[in-house]
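Batch job 17 of 40 flagged for manual review because the log was empty.
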Amino acid sequence: MSTFQELLAQAKSLINETDPSGSETLITEGWVVLDVREVEEYDQGVIPESILIPQGKIEETIEERIPNHDQPIIAMCAGGVRSAFAAVTLNELGYTNVVSMDGGFNLWKQQGRSWVSSQILKPEQRNRYERHVSLPEIGEKGQQKLLDSRVVIIGAGGLGSPAALYLAAAGVGTIGVVDMDTVEESNLQRQILHSTETIGENKVDSAEKTLSTLNPDVNVITYNTRLNKDNAIEIVE
């Protein structure tokens, strides 16, 4: 049975490697950085415009994220070990121009090369939004965009209620609710933001309670007023 070091040496014998300096040059020539670290490592920073796919998910994800098998790729991890194995996998999947960054992100960062802080989801957010994050069309970056988004809902009644609930559940980070009415018992048959306990309350206050309980990530801004030409710009901004 081979040792880990023997397997690593074998992997490196099958691939091409470059150092951070060489990688920096390749990036200017159109090479893509494939960051194969685990998600929890991303808070240490990332190379701008890199594609983040943990090593264990390359086989099932890479062709959705990088469909062109001739796209030059720099595989990168923290130190150059996982990226070597990732480069072997990419070669086996038919990618024609792959190198592994020896020294990885740790050396890249130590040498003072360009990197940015990564906006990543907290563990509890990854669990909440797992169905979104697992979709290649959304992923973690897409979910972060939703959390950074702002939506104004005009009316917390029969149409505004389900819209607000679905937006909050999806993780839209800021939801404004505009309504000047109060909750009546006859509303409850269709206005699902409200409940028996909130009869008599302002609809915007009732909506804030429901949405904040549904998803604590959401910042609910209430406007207990009627939208008109005098306040529309201020509310939307």
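Reviewer: the log was empty due to a logging misconfiguration, but the result itself is present. Residues 203-214 form the longest helix (12 residues). Unflagging and moving on to job 18.
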